[in-house]
Specification:
CATH superfamily of the domain at 234-428: 2-enoyl-CoA Hydratase, Chain A, domain 1
CATH class of the domain at 234-428: Alpha Beta
Number of strands: 17
Largest sheet: 7 strands, mixed
Helix content: 25-40%
Shape: globular
CATH topology of the domain at 234-428: 2-enoyl-CoA Hydratase, Chain A, domain 1
Strand content: 15-25%
Order of helices and strands: HHHEEEEEHHHEEEEEHEHHEHEEEEHHE
Strand order of the largest sheet: 16-13-12-11-10-9-17
Number of helices: 12
Radius of gyration: 22 Å
Length: 430
């Protein structure tokens, strides 16, 4: 069975959990393309409206059928007066309406959407410009105050309807990626002009800065400069690798788990053996498994490590096993975090997860006939947290980075572990 990580729209496998609902095998046959642009978009809307309720395990678990049908009819009647990107945004909104993070149309593969030359991230003190390319340098490191004429809280409220999500933590995780798509900003009435987007920030020194950011073809923004010039903390290193580990000074084993997938040249079975052998040989003060950047995959991949850690129960019994979680911990990675807490006795450190413990998954997809947009949908319900229904898996120790932490290369989660163990700040070994 599978749940998928978004926005990459990958089909991912997880072990069988309590589930309900099954769906037909596939979508309806594609209709003969209509002769007009408006007719073709209407066909796509009708395909989504017909197939998504039929294929999803339980599409109307949160949003009523009447609300969904009303939004479908509204979009169909407005196609003639809308631009292409407005219709596409409307389709994305329809897929997000049910409130299932795995059921979505990703905007990141639509070629008609451009990008702004900045990247942003929610930190504990606001939405911060963490990197910028030429054209966005004036905002680098700043906390965003306005987009267009709207304050940031209103802008987030308006972007929310197009972000497929189970909870607000996932909106904080991927919402900033939608806020750099000028066509979506225009379609959601956040800005009046998709060609140049006005933003204002408060810079790290307290001064105000403004810029008009150009809309650029995706991938053509140029080289991005980072808001931090400090040495990168461990959580920002080697993010392209599925998993890796190192030791800190004092003697703590830090393992970063970025994707629930076996590495091509180093399967988890052999990787986990090296980790466990190192634990036996060096008897660490603590072991940390960092899942904060993990959007999912096959949750069973981590089983060799999980079983090995369970066999070394002295770690949990002495309060020396930690798992880091955050708003990008999603899908199968969330299941691994639950296992680490409930079966391995790990102490959770960080922020609420972007995934909801009980939710829909085992993702399939179909393609809209004319726009070729891919629609992902869930086919199973997973009850990963029996006896409750929390929006997120919550940390035992809250530790969210601030803009100052980001600039200074600090990791509050690592500091929290050090404080818990009565140790000085944990430093990577050289």
């Amino acid at each position: 069975m599978s749940r998928a990580a978004l926005p990459l729209l990958l089909t991912l496998s997880v072990p069988l959990l309590a589930s309900c609902g099954s769906t037909p095998e596939g979508p309806s046959p594609a209709p003969t393309p209509a002769a007009t642009r408006d007719g073709r978009f209407v066909q796509d809307i009708e395909t989504l409206a017909k197939d998504l309720p039929r294929l999803h395990a339980n599409l109307f678990f949160r949003t009523s059928r009447e609300t969904f049908d009303r939004e479908v009819d509204s979009l169909k009647t407005r196609v003639a007066e809308m631009t292409d990107y407005e219709v596409v945004t409307g389709l994305i909104r329809l897929a997000a309406l049910p409130g299932d993070a795995h059921t979505a149309i990703s905007p990141f593969s639509y070629p008609g959407f451009r990008r702004l030359p900045i990247r942003m991230r929610f930190l504990s003190d606001g939405l911060v410009v963490t990197s910028a390319a030429p054209g966005g340098e004036a905002l680098l490191g700043g906390r965003i105050v306005t987009i267009g004429d709207l304050d940031i809280a209103t802008a987030i409220e308006r972007i929310g309807p197009v972000v497929s999500r189970d909870n607000d933590a996932w909106l904080r995780a991927i919402g900033p990626n939608y806020l750099v798509i000028p066509e979506i900003l225009r379609a959601q009435r956040i800005v009046a002009d998709a060609e140049r987007v006005r933003m204002s920030v408060v810079l790290p020194d307290g001064t105000a800065a403004q810029a008009e950011l150009p809309a650029l073809a995706a991938g053509r923004e140029g080289t991005f400069a980072d808001a931090s010039s400090a040495p990168l903390p461990l959580y920002r290193q080697r993010g392209q690798e599925n998993y890796w580990y190192t030791w800190t000074d004092p003697d703590v084993l830090y393992l970063q788990y970025n994707r629930c997938q076996n590495a091509a040249n180093d399967p988890m079975s052999s990787f986990a053996k090296r980790v466990l052998d190192d634990i036996d040989r060096r008897s660490p003060r603590a072991v940390i498994v960092d899942l904060r950047a993990n959007g999912g995959g096959d949750s069973s991949v981590l089983d060799p490590l999980l079983s090995g850690l369970r066999a070394r129960s002295f770690l949990a019994q002495s309060g020396r096993l930690f798992a880091f979680i955050g708003n990008s911990t999603f899908s199968s990675a969330l299941m691994n975090a639950i296992s680490l807490k409930r079966e391995n006795g790990a102490i959770l450190v960080g922020e609420p997860t972007g995934g909801k413990p009980n939710g829909y998954g085992e993702v399939r997809s179909f393609t809209l006939p004319n726009s070729a947009l891919s629609v992902s949908y869930s086919t199973k319900f997973f009850n990963s947290w029996p006896g409750g229904d929390p929006d997120s898996l919550l940390p035992d120790i809250a530790a969210a980075p601030s803009s100052v932490d980001y600039r200074d290369g600090r990791d509050p989660a690592m500091d929290a572990v050090a404080a818990r163990l009565g140790l000085p700040r944990l430093q990577p070994t050289r």
